Amino acid sequence: MANLGNPRNTVEIIQKHGFIFQKKFGQNFLIDTHVLDKIIQAAGITKDDFILEIGPGIGTMTQYLAEAAGKVCAVEIDRNLIPILEETLAGYDNVTIINEDILKVDVAALAKKENGGRPIKVVANLPYYITTPIIMGLFESKAPVESITVMVQKEVAERMKSGPGSKDYGALSLAVQYYAEAYLVANVPPNCFMPRPKVGSAVIRLTRHREPPVEVADEALLFQVIRASFNQRRKTLQNGLGNSAGLSVTKEDVAKVIEDMGLPPTVRGEALNLKQFAELANRLEKAD
Ligand code: SAM
């Protein structure tokens, strides 16, 4: 099958099947061979690897993945793309296509069934409307995900890499830091896609830590505290956490913990780094 990284081949297959792009599925297909090569290289794929691809589209990146990896499993929500994928991937016997919403797939069970529970790598040009739930879902699941190399909106890549004091800093930055090491592979302009997205994009590689960089007694509580702090970004931690419905701590408990940590009473969540959030959660757990 012709290389779909060539825009002419992409147009040809789309016209042949009368495919209509669905905005609601975030369909922007890659049409740049250099970007595709870069993604494959950044993901560090070998013939021993099992790759989960999210949203293969017409199979452009899937062709590159199938060449480099041992096995590829691609999950695509749009059933209109399935006959196209059957055609564009017909030459590969190491690719499985699943017609499903990735948010409904049990990735841990999939890794067990298809790869004997060994670590898997996720590689994708993600649908931008669900980037955060996909990445958080992969981290929070018990799936053995070793790395995630993905195309995301440029602004989301910046949020993942930012720290206290930056306007981009938030719950996603902290979650990514807790679970992984983030590396910005490349910025990608809109003309590398068909149709062109309105925003700039970036490829980011998240390599999962063997152990989280901070110790917490209750991981769920840490993320509750983080979410509550950034949900009410303009409030002080005392007011934000003390009034949060999901947390069973009083404003007085929070005030005491903040004082014990040597922080000013007016401190806001956006000023705390991951280590401080971990300490805050550990102290709140004891105060509970
Ligand atoms: N990988 C292709 C490429 O690079 O050309 C397509 C990438 S496009 C940005 C995102 C793809 O994800 C589309 O094919 C879209 O139909 C698919 N998609 C959207 N939502 C999905 C979901 N919830 N589960 C699985 N696939 C989804």
Summary, kept brief:
The chain is of the alpha/beta class and 288 residues long.
Provide structural commentary:
This protein is α/β, with parallel strands linked by helices and 288 residues long. It folds into two domains: 7-208, Vaccinia Virus protein VP39 (Rossmann fold, 3-Layer(aba) Sandwich), CATH 3.40.50; 219-287, Helicase, Ruva Protein, domain 3 (Orthogonal Bundle). Helices cover 41% and strands 18% of the residues. It is built from twelve helices and nine strands. The chain has helices at residues 7-17, 33-43, 60-68, 82-88, 107-115, 131-140, 154-161, 171-179, 219-231, 237-242, 251-260, 274-287; strands at residues 29-30, 50-54, 71-76, 95-99, 120-125, 145-153, 180-188, 193-194, 201-208. Strands 4-3-2-5-6-9-7 form a seven-stranded mixed beta sheet, with helices on both faces. It has a two-stranded antiparallel ribbon with strand order 1-8. The N and C termini lie far apart (61 Å). The model has no long low-confidence stretch (mean pLDDT 94).
For the largest beta-sheet, the strand count, sense and barrel status come to: 7 strands, mixed
How much helicity do the residues have? 40-55%
Give the strand tally. 9
Name given to the CATH homologous superfamily of the largest domain: Vaccinia Virus protein VP39
- Spatial shape: elongated
* Protein structure class: alpha/beta
CATH architecture of the largest domain: 3-Layer(aba) Sandwich
Distance between the termini: 61 Å
Rg over CA atoms: 21 Å
- Overall number of domains: 2
User: Poorly predicted ranges (pLDDT <50, ≥5 residues)?
Assistant: none
| Strand order of the biggest β-sheet | 4-3-2-5-6-9-7
Mean pLDDT: 94
Q: What is the fold-level CATH name, i.e. the topology of the largest domain?
A: Rossmann fold
Secondary-structure element string: HEHEHEHEHEHEHHEEEHHHH
CATH class descriptor name of the largest domain: Alpha Beta
Bound molecules: S-adenosylmethionine
Strand content: 15-25%
